[in-house]
Design a protein that fits this description.
single chain, mainly alpha, 137 residues
Length: 137
């Protein structure tokens, strides 16, 4: 990997850490502290902007990758998006039938699930395109 691509990859990691810290910090503050509504809205906006910046840098980083790496990441995104929609549809329909507990199945619980879907898709796609030296000399 050349130094420019490595630098972009490292920066994406920094933006991911900034977003994760802002998300966890906002979640902690909003759940445990008595914060006035305007300050809570500012926390939410800061977290949303941190994610938007991370997503922008992430997709810019994908553009710099070779074709196989782009395909791997796009397949992971499609996998995650499809499973995430399936989950939301299932939970929405189940809520009409049995009434789900908001403490267990709220919107904030969907973020870690969708991230796990993305990493599962990334794992599957990487394995799919990984060439075994014995099979492909």
């Amino acid at each position: 990997m050349n130094s420019q691509k490595k630098h972009l990859t490292d920066r994406v990691g920094v933006y991911a850490i900034i977003w994760c810290c802002s998300y966890v910090g906002s979640l902690f503050a909003l759940q445990t502290l008595d914060i006035p509504s305007p300050a809570g809205i500012v926390l939410v906006v800061v977290t949303v902007l941190a994610f938007a910046l991370f997503a922008y840098k992430y997709f810019r980083g994908i553009v710099q990758m070779d074709e196989v790496q782009v395909k791997i990441h796009m397949e992971a995104i499609v996998f995650s998006f499809s499973l995430g929609l399936l989950l939301l549809m299932t939970l929405g329909l189940l809520e009409l039938v049995v009434g789900l507990n908001e403490d267990d199945w709220s919107y904030r619980h969907m973020l870690p699930v969708w991230l796990s879907f993305y990493f599962m898709g990334l794992f599957i796609s990487k394995r799919k395109y990984q060439f075994d030296d014995e099979k492909h000399p």
